[in-house]
């Protein structure tokens, strides 16, 4: 079912299947999120446009994982890459929303709930709740939460896979509050151990400030991008499909900035919710590198960036900037699986806020 809520100048359209946003108009007269345009397109699931990622984001090696000595396969539910968890095909139920004609409602938020059942793929049940909030003009709040209803602790990682519409890769620009890039192999799986993490400036084309090439003038950042040494501009190119971590949390959130090239910008803030492990709290000084040195298991929350060259529709006309509480293949990384373990009855929550900048 497709439903729509509106509040003031804002419109939010979504599918109850997977709780996926189809479009969010923050008051511009058009959507800034590039979602599926029909039920047929959503069924094809090309690109996982605006998908919610629970109980793990991104890839799982060979669609297999070791559950305390029990080998579990995700095949039959996921593809051979074990992509993006188990909820993108679930039917969610709106809670407390009175829909009128055309499945539309005047409301400043919508909450949807579904349950991942206990199965040979993953222990459950896991209750999943998604809240989309448009109560603040020009802002979209996204809360993804998962409660462990199983009879034992289970690892739960969360993510969101939004695609932000841009004029083109050449015109768009992106800044991330990150210090490290996650290095992957040919299957796009992170390398083992600490080999997976390198300083963000090493061989990535990223930079802390605009750098001119031969005969190319420097493009200063827009005035609305903070002049902060923890922000790195990411080189957007057609082969980019990488995660960036070592995040700097400022005022409780790690905030990315994108200039869409369409006359407006967006900020994407990933919060440190109360349910995240202490390793995500950041150091008192705000130094991600100092925080890493002080803790044996640092927070691997990250922004995964995909420029969409392989999309069937409108390739490289939108950029996926994915806030994730954990890294790819987390179910096969003992230290990361342990960090994301949720006790019986416990809950994990991911909070994201997207704001229009004009």
Topology summary:
Elements: E1 2-7, E2 10-15, E3 20-25, H1 39-44, E4 51-53, E5 64-67, E6 70-73, E7 93-95, E8 104-106, E9 109-116, E10 126-133, E11 139-148, E12 154-155, E13 159-161, E14 163-165, E15 173-176, E16 180-182, E17 197-199, E18 232-234, E19 241-245, E20 253-259, E21 265-271, H2 288-294, E22 302-306, E23 318-324, H3 334-339, E24 341-342, E25 347-357
Parallel strand pairs: 1-8
Antiparallel strand pairs: 1-2, 2-3, 4-13, 5-6, 7-9, 9-10, 10-11, 11-25, 12-24, 14-23, 15-18, 15-20, 16-17, 16-19, 19-22, 20-21, 21-25, 22-23
**How many angstroms separate the termini?**
33 Å
Estimated share of beta-strand residues: 35-45%
Poorly predicted regions: 207-216, 281-296
Order of helices and strands: EEEHEEEEEEEEEEEEEEEEEEHEEHEE
Please tally the β strands and state the result. Answer: 25
Spatial order of the strands forming the largest sheet: 7-9-10-11-25-21-20-15-18
Class from secondary-structure proportions? mainly beta
How many H/I helices?
Answer: 3
Specify the overall morphology.
globular
